[in-house]
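Hi support team,

I'm filing this because I wasn't sure whether my run with iron/sulfur cluster finished correctly. The job status page said complete, but I'd like someone to confirm that the output block is well-formed before I use it downstream. Pasting the exact inputs I used:
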Amino acid sequence: MEEKQKTVDQVMHDRMKEMKVETMYDRYQAQLPQCGYGSLALCCRHCNYGPCNIDPFGKGPKKGICGADANTFAARHFLRMSGAGTACHSDHGRAVAHLLVATARGEAPGYRIKDVEKLMAVAECFGVKTKDRKINEIAEEVGEMALMEFGKPYGTLLFLKRAPEARQKIWEKIGIASRAIDREVCESFHRTGIGGDQDYKNLTKQAMRVALADGWGGSMIATELQDILFGTPKPVQGRSSMGVLKKDSVNIIVHGHEPQLAEAIVMASSDPEVTNAVHATGAKRVVVAGLCCTANELLVRHGIPMAGHMTMQEPAISTGVVELMVVDIQCVMQAIVETAKHFHTKIVTTLPKAKISGAEHVEFSDEHAVDAAKKILLMAVDNYKNRDNKKVFIPGGAEPNIVAGFSHETIKYMLGGRFRASYRPLNDNIINGRIRGVVGIAGCTSPKVGVGEESYVNLAKELIANDILVVATGCAAGQCADGGLMIPEMKDACGAGLKEVCEAVGIPPVLHSGACVDNSRILIAVSEMAKEGGLGNDISDLPVAGVCLEWMSEKAIAIGQYFVASGVYTVFGTNSPVAGAPDMQRLLTSEMEELVGARWDFEKDFKKIARMVIDHIEKKRDALGINVKKERKLYDMAERRALERECKPAPSGHH
Ligand code: NFS
Ligand code: SF4
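And here is everything the job wrote out:
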């Protein structure tokens, strides 16, 4: 039997083992067995009476010292995770809003407003006047309005209005329409302290409200305002592999989440001072490659190559060719400082809110972004001479292997045509059954599933073979890109119906839609599908689902919770974050359906997940009545003639 080819991560991990470079897999092994209380959410240290544990099986305690029970423990954890995840995406969104204001005021040299159409769309949604006003004036007000969304004392979030009316009514009815973003985050932490909210159902409602403030608030602000500043993604060819790093070049990796840093690095990389310095070293050029969500942001907007996803940050350094890794915030492991010590690589932090002991720090600000970026690039160039060629090892090819950049606007244009962009054709293809449904695959990669396991790739293959269109974001998208799923040729791996659509439109069956904040694009897409008609009138009526197999970050929980609260059935792999509290688990996996028309599921076995998602989609199709097999009608001659008359094209000039 032919041996399965090793993935790039596997090859790199073998290499790192050989070189005695510690990896996250080693540290994961060292943690085993992981704490049972922690794994089941039955450990609390929210006050100094504790830490308290609850014994789920034996005769041990069933309550904390304050009397809190298992459901309260688990629900408080769940809410804190949702709140923390929301804080991450939203603080990112806030930084973008500040940058938009600074750019509009001419205080952020190098940046400019790239997508005026998107600016106008957001202005309209925010109620900002556009008539007879300068672009910069509009942009400044839009930025300021966005900043107000974080702390306004009254009212609910403006972007909530983008959801179908039926959805907004549900949110209002059960009291989860999000108010100001910071308020929801603050209240979540207030409620989860000792002696606060101690009703798991009530806590879970707040988890919905704070998570909605992520999806329809902070994340949507990040995505939309980034599009205004850096351009809305359009289909673009790119590469995703460790092989994008080059032996003969100065390699710099941009890692983290906020694209303003990465965009500045890209701008500065063509500065004559930098290119001259590069040539003086004898290197051919500078390669800027992305990692984690920064990679997704750069890829979908500019086709800039992607070196890898979350679990590949240590391997990327271990290629020995990375002169410098510059990071901003989120999902950057402290461990990379140690990995870098084995090589010549410099680690540079850039934000006052995210420093790492042992890394160098070059402060980055909107006002001096390009200067800081230039300084960082020159540090990388200067470090090229220190590379040890004996340690160089780059696996993976470098050929273009992805088409990325599928914003919800692009999907609309591609399927609906440039001049009449709409979701009608997508809806029609779902109704006629060529496409059974749409699944969003999002989220992290994790050592819990083993080195270089391609869980997302396998799931996506299963789904497209069953005529389900896949939209991927975050590190899941990174893995699908590496796995070669994001090329139009993948149509041959699809079922007949999806294949036909992909062929006609020229899209891959797995669409790269960006970073994790860009899951907000999926919210907009499903809202437009619901509003387009023919598939019910709410998101929860659609044959769609969300999946995150290797969830890791608190951000993933926030995303899952806002997907569900928005009406999307969502399945998470590995383990449930509330497993030790049966009532809480039941609330998430069943009772939430009564509240918001969708629920969570947790399942270890990835193959089962594919089945669960397909079954869910078919169930929704049944409920919509679009699974009815049409009876074949045999027409007689007269009927056929009548039909032909009806179908005749309108005479020309009659548009
Ligand atoms: Ni999302 Fe992006 Fe990746 Fe997970 Fe981390 S990089 S914001 S959290 S690990 S998908
Ligand atoms: Fe224990 Fe209650 Fe304090 Fe938690 S909040 S540590 S359960 S006493």
